[in-house]
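cron nightly-structures :: item 1 of 1
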Amino acid sequence: MRWQNPATRVFGTDSLRRRMPGWPYRAALLLALPLLGAGAPPLGAEESLSVSGRLSSRATLALDDSSSKEDPSLTGRLVIDAHQSAWRLYTWLEGGWDGTVASQNSDHALLKDLDTVYQDNSPYLEVKDLYAERALAGIETRVGIQRFAWGRLDEYPINDLFNPWDYRQFLLKSLEERKIGVPAVSATISRSDWSGQFVWVPWLVPYRLPGPDERWSLLPATSTFPGASSPELTPLEPDLPARNLQNGSAGLRLQTLGEVEWAVNLFHGFDPRPVFGATALTTTGTDHGQDTTFGIVPSFHKITSIGLDSAMVKGDWSLRAETAYACNRVFTVRRELWETSISQGIDPSLLPSMEVTRDTLDYGVAADYRPFEDGLLTIQAQQSVILDRSSTLYDQTVETLLWANLKVGWLNQKVETSLNLAWNPEHSATMIKASTYYILTDFWKIGLTGLLLDGPPQSIFGRYAMNDQVMLEVVYSW
């Protein structure tokens, strides 16, 4: 398959205009600047200011020669939490040089924006959180860029739907790091043994995807289009829904406290999972056959989800569970059906249907156990059931993900080790991730992480099967 650089093929003048920082980020930075300066006003008895940060430098060795390469990276974060009486201002900034970026516009923006799927910022600056909080009459109200944590499961929580993900290296990043902050208004009220939280996100913020020539691309790197000598699959930047009241997302979470915690989650808004639609199909005759260009674009659809989650502690075990029924979830059809449409000589003006709408039922359970003092074992199983599944889908009627993680500290916590195992039995897709870090001082640590992936090309792990790697990382934190 021949890929064209999205920077030259996809992003035109209008796209460059859209890539300039939007007003939410500009406002967020204006709010943060007083805290970032050295001349912050002194804090009184009821005031506090905490500042923490982290710098990380890493280098990656690809174990497969055919895998896309990446450069060494240097990234950092700065977290500022300021309290003054009933007010709070919370800021989480990230930035640096991202070695995974393969193609860059010479005039790319420094600041990651909130309305672009394919972004090639390196160096970059991202506002993960920047909100003001006010506590009044038992109600905590937050306004600004926020990340939420609904549900109970690790890695792939079912009811956590407000924040889209950044899919650059998403198998290596923690759930907290994958989430993209969204402009939102939230209000939390607590009364005795129950609490409720209402969240409103006024417009869609899309997930972020790596370019097709980058290491962690969601799209396959090869093609077998029949009848085309050098088929070309071109990702396009989407036209997002208009910013109006009809295109927002909202949700309500009601939670009870006690020995067994329960929560009810109601959500209506855009599904954060990636879905693709067709936009253009052209076939051009050449001396060697036909050149086929197939344009695909991220597609966004609203869902309604009703979910439950629970957690309890039983002896040495911590038990967690959650479930959700989602209406009108959209899936992308199997990729070979796109190829069949091309091989059958469909009129280029007639685009093949790439989307199927179905209801789904998701559920999962997890358990945490300490086999010994410095060890923590987490086991998790979850399934997604596609109701009235269409034969055009690659996904099975039931998709299962089994996951286990063992963390162990050695030599009085001077050595930290972690082993992650994941398996998708329907497609025999697997992931093995192991890491070892040595704590040099209270501020410095150095470690190695190995990653092995296997499975069919469209499966959750198999699409990255060429990305087996070893990573060296040096971390400074305060």
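cron nightly-structures :: done
Residues 1-21, 26-45, 221-230 have pLDDT under 50 and may be disordered.
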